[in-house]
Write a structure and sequence with these properties.
The complex is a heterodimer of chains A (about 325) and B (about 425). With about 325 residues, chain A is mainly α. Chain A has 14 helices and two strands, in the order ααββαααααααααααα. Chain A has two domains: about 110 residues; about 180 residues, MetI-like (MetI-like fold, Orthogonal Bundle). Chain A has a two-stranded antiparallel sheet. The relative contact order of chain A is 0.14. Chain B contains 14 helices and eleven strands. Classes of the chains: A mainly alpha (about 325), B alpha+beta (about 425).
């Protein structure tokens, strides 16, 4: 079993490296296009490796806590002062927080939302799939609707209801933190309250989609003979539901793994909308830097973090899949 | 319900063809040029809504030439005053502007040179003079600034003009003449009433006509999403089927689809748009424009979603290849490609149609999402939605007339395509 898990991690690592190489090639090519050069010139093997190395160096240096360098040059009677930005100072000045904090913010939003989605999505899907009734009818309407309408639209709708109409939760994370820090009362709960709207948005948007998936899997499974036998034996519904859940969980994990990039994509938009200086904002600033300064360093950094998050998510879920699926366990 | 879904799809496809012809092309070209929209009211609802709740509409007043002066009549019958009234001269000569209220009382508003245009709501000394004559108690300028100074002009004499506004309804006359003599017929100034309602779908925070964004954006949005979904379905079918069979091509295609699944879609789409698009820089980041061929854009979105879709097809093919009748075919000597051609393909076709149907709304959502990151390829629904959002959440006002039509359209298109997809899916499962 452990050998299989190591195999999964090795495979995902190889994929991560390939993805990084592809992204660096594409970013370098777009830099070249914007500089009116031929994108093919960037595909030269040596140049490509150099550029990838530069991008990676920037992505590592961004974590080194170095302030901008001030260089003073005196020539004749004039003094010239140059402020040279380090990757870290560039990041802090353009994003408004440190890289670690930025990643932590995105991770908090993603992990909390994912946890809530998995809990509520599984419960709703299970009840709707096994018991039917009103829960199922509501889900059959909301599931397709929420999977089709983009997440940002629900974010705007929530924003309108929760902030403009009810004024219950802070709208802009960064403004809320700044305001609270003036009063000197910033705690972990302050951050969580500031992030409540983005988390709520992602959760509400995705719960029906995940619930629909569980429902479909349960409906497929509940017609199996072993379920009918359990019902005829008079076993309690809760017991049968737990059993069904155990059976459909591996497929659900695969779906969760594939859907992670979609969740990440919605998170990026939600961060922009609610002023969270996370990886979404970093990505947005990176795009602006690429377009206006023909510099893809920041965009590469944001893309790298996204790829690593996807890698971590896939590795964990696939390993869990190996642990949870009895067929795979027995084969091992 | 299925008929309703087909009707919705047909409606939006027709609208995407006809819609762009209902807008002024110049409005589209200047969509990101904020100063172009200066003669429009900011953030007002549609005219039909204004008609229902009694809001003044936005209009150009028609002038008549009378003895060297131009006279404009404004029929004010609302309970709220317009956002502003602009006088746009057509001469460099000094102008004298007089307002005559429905009682026949004359008020001098302006006497002097007008550079650019004259904004009546900012004429503080004239408005304070009118307030001295009409309002009880007389408001201060700062009080007026926090409300609309035009309330003084349109209020009933002897009332509180600011806090408890009571309108004086009737026809107002604006007389424009030259300070030093008569105006010629060719000097006709324009008078624009910036009402509290505008056009078919109102305006946004920059005063842009939302109908322009909606109707013109529909063409590219529908075109790219339908075309993109078609390319995606076709490529996913080829890639998914070939990766599942044990041919020389199978393994490399399988690896490619795995890689595509692992690349974050946003960075991939952004860099591909920048490589294949043409950037037109403006004075501000807002005026940046990315021109891209809709076919290239459709191909990009297809590539972005290809990984996951081809993996889904691959798993269907794998599942099918395990079945007994396939084993029998193999036993009688059928090759892998023959099995795919005669046994797997008939099973896959309905799924591909389903994939096409559910991809259309997904692609529309993705295109609009790109706007959040300043990458707006072409002119689509993302253009109209994301530009105000980019200005920052603290300045963003979620106007219902901006969100509801777009949200409703997205919802209807999504519902219709998913419903059609479900129809195909149910038939497919029944067959399977």
């Amino acid at each position: 079993m452990n050998g299989r898990i190591i195999g999964v991690i090795l495979r995902e690592t190889a994929l991560l490296i390939t993805v990084i190489l592809i992204l660096s090639t594409l970013i370098a090519s777009s830099e070249a296009t914007l500089q009116k050069e031929s994108p093919l010139s960037e595909l030269h093997q040596g140049k490509l490796l150099n550029r990838t190395e530069e991008y990676l160096r920037f992505s590592v240096d961004v974590f080194k806590n170095e302030n901008e360098k001030v260089v003073t040059i005196t020539k004749d009677n004039s003094t010239f002062i140059y402020h040279i930005q380090t990757p870290h100072s560039l990041f802090v000045s353009s994003i408004g927080t440190t890289p670690i904090m930025s990643i932590l913010l995105t991770l908090t939003i993603l992990s909390t939302s994912l946890l809530l989605i998995l809990i509520f999505g599984t419960l709703w899907g299970l009840r709707a799939g096994y018991g039917g009734g009103i829960l199922d009818r509501v889900l059959r309407i909301l599931g397709p609707l929420f999977s089709a309408i983009p997440g940002w639209f629900w974010a705007v709708a929530l924003l309108w209801i929760l902030w403009w109409k009810l004024n219950v939760l802070p709208l802009s994370y960064i403004d809320y933190i700044h305001r609270t820090s003036v009063e000197g009362r910033v705690t972990i709960f302050t951050h969580l309250k500031g992030l409540a709207l983005p988390i709520l948005t992602l959760t509400i948007v995705n719960v029906p989609v995940y619930a629909m998936m569980v429902r479909n899997l349960i409906i497929k499974e509940k017609d199996e003979d072993y379920v009918t036998i359990d019902i005829l034996k008079g076993l309690p519904d809760g017991w049968i539901e737990r059993k069904l859940l155990r059976v459909v969980l591996p497929s659900f994990l695969t779906f969760t793994s594939y859907s992670f990039l979609n969740l990440l994509m919605n998170d990026m938009a939600v961060e922009i909308l609610f002023n969270v200086p996370g990886i979404g904002r970093t990505f947005s600033v990176g795009v602006m830097m690429l377009i206006f300064f023909q510099n893809g360093d920041m965009l590469f950094f944001a893309s790298l973090i996204m790829s690593i998050m996807y890698f971590a998510n896939t590795s964990i879920l696939e390993s869990l899949y190996l642990k949870l699926d009895p067929r795979v366990r027995r084969d091992a | 319900m299925r008929r309703f879904s087909i009707l919705i799809v047909a409606f939006f496809i027709t609208f995407s063809i006809i819609g762009p012809h209902t807008v002024v092309e110049k409005n589209v070209e200047n969509w990101n040029n904020v100063s172009y929209w200066k003669y429009n009211p900011i953030g007002v609802p549609p005219e039909w809504y204004g008609y229902l709740v009694g809001l003044p509409k936005t209009e150009w007043l028609r002038g008549t030439y009378q003895n060297g002066s131009f006279v404009y009549y404004y029929n004010f019958h609302y309970s709220k005053v317009p956002q502003n009234i602009l006088i746009i001269p057509n001469t460099t000569r000094n102008l004298k502007i007089v307002l005559v209220d429905p009682r026949g009382k004359e008020y001098n508003l302006w006497n002097g040179i007008v550079s650019g245009y004259l904004n009546l709501a900012t004429l503080s000394s004239s408005i304070i003079d009118i307030a001295r004559d009409k309002c009880n108690p007389k408001p201060t300028w700062s009080q007026l600034l926090f409300h609309n100074p035009l309330r003084v002009i349109f209020s009933k004499p002897g009332t509180d003009c600011v806090f408890n506004f009571i309108p004086l309804k009737g026809t107002y006359k604006i007389i424009i003449t030259g300070t030093f003599g008569r105006l010629n017929r060719g000097d006709e100034p324009k008078v624009r009433v910036l009402g509290l309602s505008y056009g078919r779908l109102g305006t946004d925070v920059y005063g842009r006509d939302i109908w322009t964004g909606y109707a013109y954006g529909a063409r590219e949005t529908i075109e790219v999403s339908v075309l993109g979904a078609g390319i995606l379905a076709l490529l996913a079918l080829i890639m998914g089927a070939l990766s599942a069979v044990a041919t020389n091509l199978g393994k490399p295609i399988d690896v490619t689809s795995r890689i595509l699944t692992s690349i974050p879609p946003l960075p991939l789409a952004v860099v591909l748009v920048l490589i294949f698009g043409r950037i037109k820089y403006g004075v501000t980041p807002l005026s940046l424009r990315i021109n891209i061929n809709p076919y290239a854009m459709a191909f990009i979105v297809a590539i972005v979603f290809l990984g996951t879709s081809s993996r889904e097809i691959r798993s269907i093919v794998k599942e099918e290849l395990k079945k007994d009748y396939i084993e029998s075919s193999r036993a009688i000597g059928a090759t892998q490609l023959q099995i795919v051609r005669f046994h797997v393909l008939p099973v896959l076709v309905p799924y591909v149609v389903y994939l096409f149907a559910i991809s259309v709304p997904g692609i529309i959502g993705f295109i609009t999402l790109l706007g959040f990151f300043n990458v707006i390829p072409g002119f689509n629904w993302g253009t109209m939605m994301s530009t105000p959002l980019r200005a920052g959440i603290t300045t963003y006002v979620p106007y219902w007339w901006e969100i509801v039509p777009l949200g409703l359209s997205l919802g209807l298109v999504a519902y219709a395509f998913i419903d059609i997809g479900r129809l195909v899916e149910s038939k497919f499962f029944r067959k399977a």
